[in-house]
Design brief:
By secondary structure, the chain is an all-alpha fold. It is 78% helix and 0% strand.
C-alpha cells in the first residue's frame, strides 16, 4: 500500500518512542495497526464494489446486445416463416386448381404455366 522501507520505519519508531513514551508505545502501536487494518479492509471493499459495478454494467451491455440479436433473429425467422407459409399456401392452391390470391411466384415453372393459355390451372378454370 505505502512504499515505506525499513529505515523509514525505524525513524518513525524512534520518533514515536520519544513522543509517546515507552510505557504507552505498545498500546499506540496496536491502535495504529488496528486502524491501518480497518483502512485496508475499507479500501479493499470499495475496490471490490467498484469492480462489481463495472462487471454488472458489462453484463447489462452484453444482455442488451444478446436480446437485440435474439429479437432480430426472431423477426427474421418470423418473416421467413410467413414467406414459406404463403409459398406453401400458394403451391397448395395451385395444386388444387384454385385461383391464387396475391402476386404470382417468379419461378420459371410458374412463369411457363402462366404463359400457356390452354393450361387450366393458370387461369383457375378447373375446379
Amino acid at each position: 500500500m505505502f512504499d515505506i522501507g525499513f529505515t523509514e520505519l525505524l525513524v518513525i519508531g524512534v520518533v514515536a518512542l520519544i513522543v509517546v513514551g515507552p510505557e504507552r508505545l505498545p498500546r499506540v502501536a496496536r491502535t495504529v495497526g488496528a486502524l491501518l487494518g480497518r483502512l485496508q479492509r475499507y479500501v479493499a471493499d470499495v475496490k471490490a464494489d467498484i469492480n462489481r459495478e463495472v462487471e454488472l454494467e458489462e453484463l447489462r451491455k452484453m444482455k442488451d446486445s444478446v436480446q437485440q440479436a435474439a429479437s432480430e433473429f426472431e423477426t427474421s425467422m418470423n418473416e421467413d416463416l410467413r414467406k414459406a407459409e404463403s409459398d406453401l399456401n400458394r403451391s397448395v392452391a395451385e395444386a388444387a386448381g384454385e385461383p391464387v390470391a396475391g402476386p404470382a411466384p417468379a419461378t420459371p415453372e410458374a412463369t411457363a404455366a402462366l404463359d400457356k393459355p390452354d393450361a387450366p390451372e393458370a387461369h383457375g378454370a378447373s375446379r
